[in-house]
Write a structure and sequence with these properties.
nine-stranded mixed β-sheet, 31% strand, single chain, alpha/beta
Amino acid sequence: MLQVSQSKGNITPRGKFFPFMMPNGQWAEAITDEQYANVMVIKKEDTVLIWISLDAIGISEEFSDEVRSRLSKKFSVPIQNINLGYTHSHCAPQLGGAVGRMKSYDAHYLSYVADRIEDVTERCFIQGFSDVEVYVKKADGSDYYSNRNGIDKTGDKEIGILEFRNQKGEVKGLILTMACHSTVVNFIQSRAIHSDLAGYLCRGLEQRYGIYPLFILQAAGDMGNRCFRKGNDYRELIRIGDGLLKQMEHIAVEEKLAVNQIQVQTYQYKDTYVTTKAQRQKQITHIKEQISRAENEDVKRVFQSALEFAEKQREGGTFVMNVKGTILRMGDMEIVTMPAELFSCFGLAIKQAMDVKYPMF
């Protein structure tokens, strides 16, 4: 029998300033909504999985390894069975990797978040587990987001709600999964901390189910609401969020997922790329041309981000790509994790290769 226990804890930074890592180097000055660490613990016979979702723009590998190692030792769970994910809201804190004057704030906040994750995970074990079966409901987000480079381009617009129900039909565990950037609100304008689209949808589902869902972000490198945008403020977030929640409310079709086993497999892909100074300069020139021809500020920001990274290595050099992740095979449900922001076409191809009823990347 599959068992589940789920809980959340507040990780909102307090005070006027808190760590925020963006190229503009600005500090957040207000809090629009609370930030959470959400933990789901899944048990199947002797196998235990700990899934964690954080309201954060990103997580450094060092922070992830430290937290997973800490939880592994305390709860006697193999480190590969523990996964840290994040909502990737551009208006949320960065967990690790801070530089300059933000570094001291970041170090303090990292310690606080690590403690809270441990507390919430312990609460899951203390409160006990429910015997459950898993059901998935699918919604379509096509009216509110798409490939942000064009509505007609390839995109993953499926929203999944996974309900972990007991014999009475009560939902004891909840997952929301989708491939869409939480970038509705422009931080430069709002200067406020919040979890953007992912958090808005999670709060809406919490009102419906009584459980704050674990959020799994799929391959959303080119997915967002840019092509449907009618603003960059919180009013636009309400319009987009309420529209998606309404579509999720009227899902008639659901599918039961048999989880008859859990197998955990790790993988690593490593490759090295070498560029010359001439190649790098050619790339920089090309990016600058794209910026000068950008149709709007959204497109311009994409290339400005690319330019920032290219200029860090103007002389050329060696780049080592070292990708490590986990494959969770759970009967009709399968999850592949990767610490990378892949475009949706790659995510769709990987999911198709999984060959199960409900694949997640």
